[in-house]
């Protein structure tokens, strides 16, 4: 947009563009990174270092470091990360002010060009901004285009032409549109064609700025995709150093991470889990690698409403919540399908397409299972009714005996019973899903997928996708924060055990 309008908005667009470049991840991190964590959950926190006062400048610098780290992390983890144009919400005061200011600017330009003789003050400023933008799109090898832009958009010459009444804004506009066409991404070809059809100067200049804004976003996304391979090589060290800087500002910023690992070790000892696969008469030896994998698995059963999330995982808390929701859905889906096939018997075991039909029916009913308005009891009752209808139709089509009322009643009862926390079938499928995800962490180093536990074949594709996502996120987190985890585990594990170095 024109700089004059931007100035009238007192820098509002500049701030919006800056926020959009950093994406939604940063906004989330700002809300979730808790500089005052010990005071908010003092009862859950281990003993921390004494608090110290920090200046506003220190806090601002710390926030900047965390924001930059979050942006680099988002680019690395989210392969679909893209910069998006910032637009104020529809109906907001900011949007209304922006529209008024921009309309005033373009109306003023139109008035100047209609004067006798025309006044080109605003128009020349627009051409200068357009020239600057076009030059910013050029790469080092674009010497020819650079020379052409400098030659045609020669501002001193344009000023002289304006003073002598010889300035041809239309010709310059068509040159600009042609140069934009040679520099834009293929997805902007349609926009460029529309510009070529526009002959009215003011609407054309306005449309040129709109397309230039889109081209800036395209260039930013191209830059992100270009730096990602290089960022991959340095991101681990970068994030680790940035977190160390944050830790120096907030010495107790690992309290919840330490509690997360302590609780994992405690639960493993209480369960009598041996860190190795071999049986041993010696006391359990909790290897750090095994402890850590179990700790990550606990994040998929986390109570996000009441338990503080580990600081080293904060930037991915939303992702872990999403994976937790997906795991819960797959557990319930596989449990319901197992109940259907064990209750109905062999008559439906080999019927083509039935599994997908039942699966789709259940998925539709479970689509909102993690929303506040979702009623599990009502959803399961509806699922029971719909599955009975599907099974009755299927058995009838293939010449089997009808689905009796007694079998329908039993099936509906077993489906409704899965709402209970101690339901045997649901607990069994949850245990198998957790076992598979834990195995995916152990097998990730060998690039070999673990075997699929029984009963999970209907959700094998979704479960494998979840396991890949989970393993990648965990592996990257280990690479970044392993030095911090090693120090914590060395304090937690008994002095007689060797904590090792592998994470």
From TrEMBL:
Record region (Disordered): 1-53
Biased amino acid composition, Basic and acidic residues: 1-20, 28-44
GO process annotations (BP): signal transduction
Name of one Pfam family that matches: Tcp11
InterPro entries registered for this protein in UniProt: Tcp11 (IPR008862)
Source organism, top-level taxon: Eukaryota
PANTHER family (UniProt xref): T-COMPLEX PROTEIN 11-LIKE PROTEIN 1 (PTHR12832:SF15), TESTIS-SPECIFIC PROTEIN PBS13 T-COMPLEX 11 (PTHR12832)
Family assignment from sequence similarity: Belongs to the TCP11 family.
Protein name as it appears in the record: T-complex 11, testis-specific-like 1
């Amino acid at each position: 947009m024109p700089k004059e309008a931007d100035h009238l908005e007192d820098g509002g667009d500049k701030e919006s563009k800056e926020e959009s470049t950093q994406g939604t991840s940063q906004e989330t991190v700002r809300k979730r990174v808790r500089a005052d964590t010990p005071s908010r959950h003092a009862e859950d926190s281990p003993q921390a270092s004494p608090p110290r006062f920090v200046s506003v400048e220190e806090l601002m610098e710390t926030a900047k470091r965390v924001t930059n780290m979050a942006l680099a992390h988002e680019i690395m983890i989210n392969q679909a990360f893209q910069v998006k144009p910032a637009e104020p919400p529809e109906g907001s005061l900011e949007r209304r002010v922006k529209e008024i200011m921009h309309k005033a600017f373009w109306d003023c330009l139109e008035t100047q060009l209609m004067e006798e003789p025309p006044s080109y003050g605003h128009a020349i400023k627009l051409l200068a901004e357009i020239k600057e933008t076009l030059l910013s799109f050029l790469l080092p090898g674009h010497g020819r285009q650079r020379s052409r832009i400098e030659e045609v958009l020669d501002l001193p010459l344009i000023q002289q032409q304006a003073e002598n009444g010889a300035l041809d804004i239309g010709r310059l506009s068509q040159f600009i549109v042609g140069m934009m066409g040679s520099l834009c991404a293929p997805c902007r070809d349609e926009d460029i064609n529309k510009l070529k059809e526009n002959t009215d100067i003011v609407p054309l200049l306005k449309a040129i700025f709109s397309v230039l804004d889109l081209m800036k976003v395209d260039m930013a996304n191209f830059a992100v995709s270009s730096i990602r391979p290089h960022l991959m090589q340095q991101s681990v060290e970068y994030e680790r150093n940035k977190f160390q800087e944050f830790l120096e500002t907030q010495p107790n910023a690992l309290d919840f991470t330490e509690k997360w690992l302590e609780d994992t070790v405690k639960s493993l000892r209480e369960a009598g889990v041996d860190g190795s696969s071999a049986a041993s008469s010696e006391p359990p030896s909790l290897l750090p690698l095994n402890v850590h994998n179990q700790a990550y698995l606990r994040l998929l059963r986390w109570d996000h409403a009441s338990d503080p999330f580990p600081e080293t995982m904060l930037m991915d808390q939303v992702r872990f919540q999403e994976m937790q929701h997906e795991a819960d859905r797959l557990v319930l889906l596989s449990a319901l399908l197992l109940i259907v096939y064990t209750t109905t018997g062999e008559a439906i075991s080999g019927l083509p397409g039935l599994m997908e039909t039942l699966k789709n029916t259940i998925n539709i009913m479970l689509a909102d299972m993690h929303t506040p308005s979702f009623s599990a009891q009502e959803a399961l009752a509806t699922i029971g009714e719909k599955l009975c209808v599907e099974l009755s139709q299927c058995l009838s089509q293939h010449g089997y005996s009808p689905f009796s009322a007694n079998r329908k009643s039993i099936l509906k009862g077993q489906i409704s019973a899965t709402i209970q926390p101690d339901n045997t079938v649901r607990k069994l499928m949850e245990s198998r899903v957790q076992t598979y995800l834990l195995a995916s962490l152990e097998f990730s180093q060998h690039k070999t997928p673990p075997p699929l536990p029984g009963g999970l074949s209907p959700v094998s594709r979704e479960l494998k996708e979840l396991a890949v996502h989970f393993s990648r996120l965990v592996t990257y987190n280990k690479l970044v924060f392993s030095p911090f985890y090693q120090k914590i585990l060395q304090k937690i594990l008994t002095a007689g055990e060797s904590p090792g170095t592998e994470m």
